[in-house]
Specification:
Number of strands: 10
Shape: globular
Strand order of the largest sheet: 1-2-3-4-7-8-9-10
Order of helices and strands: EHEHEHEHHEEEHEHEHEH
CATH superfamily: Luciferase-like domain
CATH topology: TIM Barrel
Largest sheet: 8 strands, parallel, barrel
């Protein structure tokens, strides 16, 4: 099992010396990957609407101050040597398909094959209205077609697609990604459409357990989600186990209420021993990677918790 950490990218933590230090410390501590998130512009974040917290507010302070994901990923590729760079997740409709495919291929080459492309359709309409040219209501269909376009551009010598949103014939995209046949695609999201997308297109399913509308915050809920994924994958004509399992943890320990709305214990609540047991339980279900958000106001506190968590929890798995 691999373990990752979210690289903070908001507020004072956007300073290059700060996030570069956190990334390098994470690499030195032996984490397998880091994650970066994707927002281009944000509305007033005082208005609730974030799907992954109980309050509907962003966890971060000053969330609107952040770097663009793919530019940051390219920078991180240059200052690290071993960490995988996981996009968590790329909001696929944010960028035109051909341009995004080229940028992603470039990052994979510059990182010597260390890119994982987490993908999602997005949820924030105000951001879509400012950034995206395709309709918000069609974001799922746009995402599916763009991802298909990525794969074609990354693998075909003379790619061609004639879709509703993407049209090209005989373009040359070179150099191709280092990874073959292409960088892994981890499909984020917890809803029915997200599960179907993972079943059809994904190399892995990459949910967050705390989505208030589609909770996967207890072992029975997550097991039910995995069972549904396997059914949908078989229905899509693939091996039921073709889609790997990965999982994102936004908060843990005392920051998580102990009991979920289904009456079961919430995953990653409680003591360090509880966290170790949860990781082992997910590993037994086939989960191959879990990442954690260690965000604190100061870089020193983030690094201290990354080090402590690795010793207290991950070393005992």
């Amino acid at each position: 099992m691999q373990f990752g950490f979210n690289l903070p990218n908001t507020g004072a933590l956007v300073a290059p010396r700060v996030f570069a230090r956190i990334a390098r410390e994470g690499e030195a501590l032996g984490y397998d990957y880091l994650t970066v998130t994707d927002h281009v512009v944000l509305p007033d974040t005082a208005e609730p609407g974030y799907p992954y917290s109980e309050s509907g507010a962003f966890y971060s302070q000053d969330s609107a101050q952040r770097h663009e994901m793919l530019t940051l990923a390219a920078y991180l590729a240059a200052i690290t040597s071993k960490l995988r760079i996981v996009l968590a997740v790329l909001v696929v409709p944010h960028r035109p398909a051909v341009l995004a495919a080229k940028m992603l291929a470039t990052i994979d080459v510059l990182s010597d094959g260390r890119l994982t492309v987490g993908i999602g359709a997005g949820w924030l309409k105000a951001e879509f209205d400012a950034v995206v040219t395709t309709p918000f209501a069609e974001r799922g269909a746009v995402t599916d077609e763009y991802v298909a376009a990525f794969r074609t551009l990354w693998t075909a010598d003379t790619p061609k697609i004639d879709g509703r949103y993407v049209h090209y014939d005989g373009l040359v995209l070179a150099p191709k990604p280092v990874q073959h046949p292409h960088p892994p695609i981890w499909v984020g999201g917890e809803s029915g459409p997200s599960l179907r997308r993972a079943a059809r297109l994904g190399d892995a399913w990459y949910p967050i357990g705390s989505n208030n509308a589609h909770l996967l915050d207890t072992l029975p809920r997550y097991q039910a989600g995995v069972a549904r994924l396997r059914q949908l994958t078989a229905a899509a004509g693939r091996d039921p186990n073709a889609v790997a399992l990965t999982y994102r943890v936004k908060r843990y320990g005392d920051a998580v209420p102990p009991t979920a709305s289904d009456g079961n214990r919430r995953l990653f609540s409680g003591s360090d021993a509880d966290l170790v047991a949860d990781i082992r339980a997910l590993r037994d279900l086939g989960v191959i990677a879990i990442d954690f958000d260690f965000e604190r106001p100061e870089a020193d506190d983030i690094i201290a918790e990354m080090r402590s968590f690795r010793e207290r929890v991950l070393a005992k798995v």
